[in-house]
Amino acid sequence: MGYGAYLNVQNNRSEALRLFVTNVNCMYDNGDEGSNLSLFNNAVVQPNSALPASGGQYIEVKASGSCAFETSTFNLKITDDTNNAIIGEADFVESSNNWDLGSNTNPDVINVMINNSGDQARITVTVANS
Length: 130
Prior knowledge:
about 130 residues, mainly beta, Mutm (Fpg) Protein, Chain: A, domain 2, five-stranded mixed sheet, five-stranded antiparallel sheet, about 0% helix, globular
């Protein structure tokens, strides 16, 4: 495993949420290098549950070839089942395995915790109870 993190989305609301992954740049996916960012694309997180149900899904950046000098990013958009946006986007940037939050359009609703200590970073996105 290279520059990667474990991603988990917690839904503390009483209604289901739908996740979308957009604007992907220089990220492995669909099992390449063990990374599966697509798990979070067009996925439903049931009320008071998490995706994945326990732990985190490994996601990894491409840090070689055409991506050697590129910033690895993706946007995570979260909406409810009626397609009303409750968050805009959360933008994660990776550099030397130090992940950070590029932007968060609604910090009162979404809390993004990033722990860069240890061998692999951990990113937990928590959607607040309304």
